[in-house]
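Exercise: predict the structure of this protein bound to magnesium ion.
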Amino acid sequence: MANLDEPLHKVLGDKTAKVLAKGLDLHTVGDLLHHYPRRYAHRGELTPLNELEDGEHVTVMAEVVKVQGRSLTRSPGYVLEITVTDGTGELKLSFFGRKGSYVPERDLSPGTRALFAGKISSYAMRNGRVQRQLAHPQYKVVAARDAAAAAQEWADEIIPIYPTTKGLDIDAIGKSVGLLLDQLDLGPDPVPGELLRRRGMIGLTEAYEGIHRPADWEELGRARRRLKWDEAFVLQIALAQRRLAAAALPAKPRPRVPGGILDAFDERLPFDLTDGQRQVGEEVAADLSHEHPMHRLLQGDVGAGKTVVALRAMLQVVDGGGQAALLAPTEVLAQQHHRSITGMLGELAQAGQIGGAEQATRVALLTGSQGAKARKAALLDVASGSAGIVVGTHALLQDHVQFADLGLVVVDEQHRFGVEQRDALREKVAGGRPHVLVMTATPIPRTVAMTVFGDLETSVLGQLPAGRSAIQTHVVPPERPAFLARTWERIKEEAAQGRQIYIVCPRIGEREGDEGDVPAAADGEDGPRRSPLGIMELLPRLEEELLAGLRIGVLHGKLHPDEKDAVMRRFGDGELDVLLATTVIEVGVDVPNATVMVIMDADRFGVSQLHQLRGRVGRGSLHGLCLLVTDAEPGSKARERLDAVASTTDGFRLSRLDLEQRREGDVLGAAQAGRSSSLRLLTLQRDEDVIHDARAEATALVEADPELRGHPALAAELAVLLDEERAEYLEKA
Ligand code: ADP
Ligand code: MG
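Solution:
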């Protein structure tokens, strides 16, 4: 009897176990059981052959039409060429060997149907056409044609097709899984029987049977439903436990104090808060006055005005005698926050200085690379408590910075921050838990919010401040060269009116391996491509020719932080007309006088990146213009993506689109540490209902039985998940 932890070699023998371990990273019975078929074929149905792509590893079902052997002319030997078809397209199979002795010749006569597995390659034929082939494919005969015609039932039989690896027979995985299934002993079902009955779900053993050897499509459907549920459910149990545990922790309440620095700040605010800002402000204020730490996610589209909400929360904490830390993902953004917060606070940031207001505090900046003297002064202000607000990069809390009394941590623009990192962050604070507010401008689809950020409460800033003008977005395509010429003219016109312009390129372009933050999903989907434009390649052309006479500054990640700060400052102060940059300006940069965003090789960026970049303009009362320069051809996937970005400025719509376009692994991989390995069937695009239901059930179960004492099998499942997650987190750290 095999249970899930049993090593595979005990069940399958050393040889097969070795190949599975090496080629597919499968080590235990559980690993192999969770190695689900990639797809299913019927015997009666052939694989469409013209959809196959070069370099793809495929398993196809096809019928032999022609068998031809010939001796090679230039070298001794014999090649057997077999042509197979799906009824429309053809594929050539070639086997090399000695004449007459070769098995495929006997197995694969015309009319035979078989599975063939191998890597697709292609070569040009004399007539110029391209022939696709499989060299030395593995094969497995499923039957001759007459038999297929005879029995409908037989033709409907479902054949699972597994992701496979070199050195395995075509049906080796199916056979191995069969062996496991025949002697499987799962013990008690981790999901409570009552829940299964109520939701009409099958047992786990039956589900594994159904996904690996389904008798019919209904059985497969039931199996998938159950296994999907488990993936969502165990994850939600983990999150529910985390929420419950966090809610039970003590924290120092920081209720509003009338007449303090927050009130003074509200009085000097130059604009009215939006309804959304007011409402979220209330939610946050209420959280802060509780005896348990706030764990809140604030979502708001680019430009929604999250900073003010965060700053007001920080001031409430300062009024309560505590300190607040604001963590930004980049130095550029940290510096900008420091500048703008100091600016917004004015005399309220000048405690201990002449002209400082009565309720004033100080705002310290801490970055990894600032000068020793400045750093020392800042550290002192932080440790003594005279700085009520501390702005820094995420490194801030890892640097053993001593706070006098840290009450609130605000994490800005953090969509690439997993649950584990958030835990680590909270644990950095000795002697009590701070309140935590996480802000993201990349709108998160509900499903992602329920999983990746499932341990947080969520607030949404749904509307932009009034008086924002629209941003127009245009694609500048290769088939309209005049548009590109017009782009440079337009930049000069804007500059002549005193406006400012961003130009963004995918890479720096001075050396190899720079910060070309090109998303994998955008890579090569429309064929091979030249390397993307670098700012250092573009700079001389701008200076000497395209934008001659304009004041151009350069910003990228390789610059010294002081230089970055200086460039941003000069741009902010209007001393530069053009900022030529990489995506270091992607998030948060706020210069209201900037009106044009030109993105070169825009197709190299993902949808949310483009949306973020576009959000750098149209921030004041001035109209924004965003130009997406591309040489992607009309009709290509890349062009569709750009057209979508041009068609709407609704970040939530774009994020759903983004999720649909990207592969699951990318989303999960980028959005969080871990998890991806435990999600096999569940997809964030399509399974919102499952995730939602699982969340409700998991929350109820954990509230009734926080330690899962009554559910030992479920507790064991959970332990496995948490282990996997921790392992991945450690790998990444
Ligand atoms: P994001 O949510 O993208 O971080 P910011 O907080 O940077 O947006 O705000 C964008 C701009 O809008 C800033 O210049 C900010 O001062 C301004 N702003 C914020 N709230 C309001 C408001 N209620 N009315 C007018 N302008 C506002
Ligand atoms: Mg921001």
